[in-house]
Each structure stands twice: as structure tokens, then as C-alpha cells.
Amino acid sequence: MVIKNDRSSDGAKQAAAEAARQRAAEQARAAAARAAKAAAAAAAAAKSKPSQKFKADEMSSGRGGALRRDSVSRLGSSGLAAANVMAPLRMTGARLKATTFSTRNGPLESRNQNQFVPDDVLKSGDPAKVRQFITDSNTAAYKPEIDAANAKIDEVQKKIDAIAAEPSDMVNRMRINALTTEKAGLVTERDALVSKRDTQTSDAIANFDKHLAEAQAADPKADQATLVAEAGAKYNDYVFYHSSEGEKIPEPTTLYATGTGDGWKIEPNDISQGGLGDCYLLAAMASLAQEHPEQIEKMIKDNGDGTYTVTFHREVPDESVLGKLFNRTKDETFEITVDLTVPSSVNGNTPAHAEVGDTDGKTNATEVWPLVLEKAYAQMKQSYGAMDGGVPGDALYTLTGSKAPRTDTSSVSADQIAQYDEDGRAMVVDTCGADEKALATYGLVGGHAYSVKGIKTDADGKQYVLLYNPWGVGNEPKPIPIEEAAKLIPNFYVN
What we know:
The chain is an alpha+beta fold and 495 residues long. Helix content is 44%, strand content 12%. A hairpin with a 5-residue loop joins strand 10 and strand 11 (463-468). Helix 3 (127-164) packs antiparallel against helix 4 (170-218).
């Protein structure tokens, strides 16, 4: 059973597309404002300082600083491949949780104008139509800003023409020289936007063509429509999870920090899920943080150079004589080294990756252990996109080396859950298969995973299951009556 994040529902694609349109409009307004400002400056300078050389406004192609959350960027020095794998299931009935991620460097701005290829284009089975859509959508995305740049150029040229029609004296010649310099700067800015658009378009088409070639190589007998649909789906994941360059969590950072009200430097409330569909992993991390925070501390090694080495577990064939005879497997540990170059936001509001945790009161450093574990898991899966949807039991095994098969919650009593908690065993549940209306009564959502905090018994002896939502503090569901648990959280995992 594959579980997806409720913060990356089918509506995420539409939200991302709408965000791109909004960004284009904002860019157009900003460009118009820059044009008006430049025109006013030119007029003032022409009156007061005829010899002044006008400078073009700074280009905004690098806007947003070192960290921006758009679609997912490349994964930095860790070597994680940019190629993506389409998740096998996209849960419905989910919602994007619109939390604005900001840092001391301020809110971050988009750099990726690529658009999702719609189903009707993919279903055409014509790769030329997909390429044309990519070209047209990028052209449309950049058009407002390029048009605004051209308008600024035309405005300056009109001033030059008007002055040229006047008597040619020293002042007018100096004014024309200044405006000509300004125009040259504006042309450079406009041409850079055009170059950026064209480069992004060619890179996007190359990505689609790569996936198409891979699909053809994998199944030479497949019909064209199937191949185009497969390649297009992977390209859409590329758009969703990758932007043009890696973006790094700003310094200062620290692996662990003790926040207000924390009893330990590693707590479940350090975890706050982003737009990526990995609730199954973050719920497992939250449960481990509650039961065995020391295991997380042992799992991550700070290399002191901006990278971290994470130790995970995997199941491999047992090559011993008896292992081969009985087809056994065994546990094996392996290491993955990552840095803090992470995915950017998928819709301008919700970070694709897990958010930073607490802030250290002494150093003002932000806590990053959840991001480190998440990125290591993504590298294990070959991309962030490939981990978009998964099984809590698999995540628990990767983190701990202890298997956690799915169990029907109906077979687990309140006393058993309390005992598991007492024994320090990590527990995760999910709502796959539960009735949406019934879930809403308790603040639960469908297709989502939660860590189990324990059992609460009220004054009347009634017992409730307490859950932690990996969306973060403030999103916890209501206590679940034990008699309702089988219906609301039907799938139970304990390692």
C-alpha cells in the first residue's frame, strides 16, 4: 500500500501552474515599475546632470538569493541524479497546507517557468506537440517581462528621437548620449531574459527527449502513444521536483537544537512536512524521535565540511550456505553522504522538502536533522520524486533495521499500544481506505500517515489513541477513541 503526502495532492500541479501565472503577472508589474522609475530618473538627470551616464536596472534573473522554494532543484554535491520516477499513486482528497517558509534571508522567489504538459497533449501521442507545448508555455511565461523590457527600450528611443528633432547643441548631444547608454543597458537586460527563456526551453525539451528515449529503449515494442505518455509523466515530475539550480539552506545551521518546551534536542515537533509526498517517512522519523532520539543522533555523522553521512539499513540476500538454501535475507547497513542543497517550493508557499526545525537560542542556528534524513532517503531512492508516496513499514526498516509489517489496527488493543510505547517501539498508522467524512470529524485526512504518541485514558476510563501529524505542531488530530481506531486508522505498523 503506497501512501502519499496530503500536502501534495492532485491540486498541487494546478497550484504550481497558478503560482507560475501569478509570478509572471508580478514580474510584469515589477518590470513596469522599473520602467517608470528609470524614465523618471532619466528625466531628472537630463535636467540636473546632463553628463550623467544612465545605468540599466539590475537584472532580476538571479533574484531570491541562495534559497528559493519553487519546484525541486538539483540535489547538489551529493551526486543525486536529477532523473525522476513517477510515483505509482497520487492520492485524492488531500490538500496543500499553505505555510510560508521564510528564513533570515527573507522569503524566496521563483526561477523556474516550466509548465506541466496537460493530459490532452500527452494523449495525442505526438512528441512534436509536447515539444511545441513546452516552447509555447515558456514563451508565454516570459512574455510579460520581455514585453515590459521592450516597452522600456521603446520609451527611451522615443526620448532620443524627440531630442534629436531639437536643435543640435552640446546639452542635447549629451542627453542623447546618456539615453543611448541607458538603452544599451536595457537591451542587454532584455536579451538576457530571452537567452534565459531559450536555454530553459531547450533544457526542458532535452529532458523530455531523454525520458522518451529511455522509454523506447525499455520497451521497443510499445506504441508511440504509450511512450509519449510515459515520457511526459516523467517530464511533469521533473517540472514538479526540479528547478534550474540547487539551493542551499542558509547558515548558520545545526543538526540539533532544543526549542521552547522541548525535553530533548531531538523531538517529533522538529518535523514539519513540505509539499513532497513523504508523510510515510516523516511519520516514521517522528515516531523514532519520540521513542529513540539517540538512534537518530547515532544515524547522522556531521563531517564538518557542510556534508553529513547517514547510516541506513537495507535487506540483502544471505549468501551463506544456509541462506542460499532457504532463500534467506539479512540486514545490511550502508552510508549516504549529503549536503544541505535541497528542493525548493512547489507553489511559492509550501517547501517541497521538510522544513527546518527549532532555532538554537544561543547561536541562532536552524535545526536541519529532518532535512538531512529526508535528503539521504531521496538519494537512496535516486531522486526526491521517487520517494513521493511510500509505505511506513519500509521507512521504519530503513531507519532502524527492524521490520515493521502492516497489521490491521482492529487486531491491536489499547493495552498493546501502551505496551509498545512502554517498550520504546516506533509506531505509525495511516488512513488509507478510511471514510473521508469520518476522518474529518477527528481532524484526520485521507491517504496520510501519522506517528503514534501513545494511549490516553480519561477519568471515565475511556481510552484514546494519540497521534502526531508530520505536517507539524498545530496540526494534530483529535484523540481517536480506541473503538473508532480500526475504522479511522486501519493500517498499523510497529517495529
